[in-house]
Amino acid sequence: NGIPHIVIADPEATLADILRNQLGLTGTKVGCNEGVCGSCSVILDGKLVRSCVTKFKKIPEWACVTTVEGIGTPEKLHPIQKALVLYGAAQCGFCMPGFVVSAKALLEQNPSPKREDVRDWFQKNLNACRCTGYKPIVDAVMDAAAVMRGDQPEESLDYHLPADGRIWGGKYPRPSAVAKVTGTAEYGEDLGKRLPSNTLQCALVQAKVSHANILKIDSSEAEKMPGVFKVVTHRDIKGKNRINGLVTWASNKCDGWDRPILADSKVFQYGDAIAIVCADTKEQALAAAEKVKVDLEVLPAYMNALEAMADDAIEIHPGTPIIYFTQGVVKGQETKPLMASAAFVAEGSYYTQRQPHLTIEPDMGFAYFDEEGRLTIHSKSIALYLHALMISEGLGLDASQIRMVQNTAGGTFGYKFCPTIEALVGAACIATQRPVYLEYDYEQFITYTGKRSPFFTNVKLGTDKNGKIVAMETDWIVDHGAYSEFGDLLTHKGAQFIGAGYDIPNIRGRGRTVCTNHAWGAP
Ligand code: FES
Questions:
Q1: Which of 222, 445, 492, 498 lies at 20 to 30 Å from 88 by C-alpha?
Q2: Segments of the chain with pLDDT less than 50
Q3: Distance, CA 499 to ligand 1 centroid (Å)?
């Protein structure tokens, strides 16, 4: 960015790590940390690189690095940044610094790109955005290029309130857009760098099998590892050690108290958190997490609803049937005779797959006690009061003793309707009485946050001779994974939405919520 720096770093350290942690340039974001999302893009000696996979040992002396901070500031935006603001491209914004830098590198090489060139460039350089669908980004780059060539005035990128004062339907900039395109918006990991120096860094001990009885958890060796302050297990949790799954209907055969904060008697899914190692550094916490010994009796894992529904399958949550909720739908006349007399009948079986939400920013959180003694939890939660209620009893607190804060979040798309990391950092903070910080790597994020649940759906439609639907029969099975939260609510959606919009007069249907050992279901 035109400022000379002396950098003394581990040869194996990445450029992203040096920029963010040693030079304080947190505008460069790290998403996947595998070189495939582009949020960490910087220009190194004129070439666009992904800084999370660029090792310090490969960087020549006197290298010139341009990050988002070197391109424009909130007071003096670069035309690329102005255009991204104007076109509404900065939504969650986590990808934006990478796109700003990537677009700058493109326009330095090719000042007059076609739209296809812009798309190809972002594709080739692996700049991913999960919010926009890319069109606003390409629009912005095309306009910025025109301004930089002198083909249109820079003022064309300024927002002007229409003469009639109407904002609705226009390009009124998102209030946070300038911060997002300049890298000054602070997401959770950025805030984490400004926590007090006594903050403990956490690492999870997680299950590597999908279904097992826990026989013993031995953390004695891990406790002796360098830098370790405490290994937190279920024994340290003073409350119910369960997250409240918020059963919606009384006919639900699960009571909703099935998801442990820290596993105690059983592993229900791959990745279940068994212990939290709290240490001075993340590296120490990760090293000690490897030393926690967990004795397991591995049980059959049911990785989809049909396997879990087999006659010989055992209950995953003892005492709760595998099919724990049934939702019927009855509308109009009996459908069987209508199907028999229908002019045409069509039927099929469908599977809609489990979906990870794949936000560019992985999951993270931290916790501390505030000046009023409240357990304060920062995370990507999109349901602050709801989550306080869902985790409070499990932690042994009243919800009023918990203060939830939403960080600027790099996308959630629904997965953060479920608590993910909140109870874990809460438990670690209570057990250690110190501020604690926990971030997931991208694999943890994929495997140990809620997913959209698969549906196995049978649908039969009967029509009159003109093709108008006169009757529908449905049978849907929701594979809701290991935990029940929002499972009944989701199964209810099948009754609401299968065939919705067609004004079908006669319907009979049944939906079932099924527990499996796959990742738990989130909206
Ligand atoms: Fe691009 Fe959210 S704005 S990932």
A1: 445
A2: none
A3: 32
* Residues across the chain: 523
Structure tokens at 395: 């932690």
Output the pLDDT for position 170.
85
d(CA 25, CA 28): 7
Q: Helices 79-86 and 96-109, interaxial angle, to 10°?
A: 130
Is residue 98 in contact with ligand 1, taking CB distance under 6 Å?
no
The residues with which 394 forms a beta bridge, in sequence order, are none
pLDDT at position 171, please? 86
Q: Are 273 and 202 in contact (CB under 8 A)?
A: no
Note every long-range contact of 8-13, with CB atoms under 8 Å and residues 24 or more positions apart, other chains counting: 9/56, 10/56, 11/55, 11/56, 11/57, 12/55, 12/56, 12/57, 13/55, 13/56
Is residue 137 in contact with ligand 1, taking CB distance under 6 Å?
no
Question: For ligand 1, is residue 87 a contact (CB within 6 Å)?
Answer: no
**Is the distance from the beta carbon of residue 230 to the nearest atom of ligand 1 less than 6 Å?**
no
DSSP, res 19: I
* DSSP assignment of 180-238: HHHT-S-BHHHHHTTS-TTPEEEEEEE-SSSSEEEEEEE-HHHHTSTTEEEEE-GGG--
CB of residue 132 inside a 6 A radius of ligand 1: yes
Q: Specify whether the CB–CB gap between 365 and 377 falls below 8 A.
A: yes
Q: In a mutational test of the pocket of ligand 1, which residue from 131, 187, 361 has the highest number of ligand atoms less than 8 Å from its CB?
A: 131
Is the distance from the beta carbon of residue 94 to the nearest atom of ligand 1 less than 6 Å? yes
Non-local (6+) Cβ contacts of 400 within 8 A are none
- For residue 169, the model assigns a pLDDT of 84
In short, whether 91's Cβ falls inside 6 Å of ligand 1 is yes
* Torsional sign, CA 142, 144, 150, 151: positive
Partner residues linked to 347 by β-bridges:
460
CB 54 less than 6 A from any atom of ligand 1: no
Give distance in angstroms: CA of 401 to centre of ligand 1.
Answer: 34
Contacts with 284 (C-beta within 8 Å, 6 or more apart), sequence order: 201, 225, 226, 227, 228
Ligand 1 centre to CA of 89 (Å) is 8
Instruction: Convert the pLDDT of each residue in 145-176 to its tens digit.
Output: 999 999 999 999 999 999 999 988 888 999 99
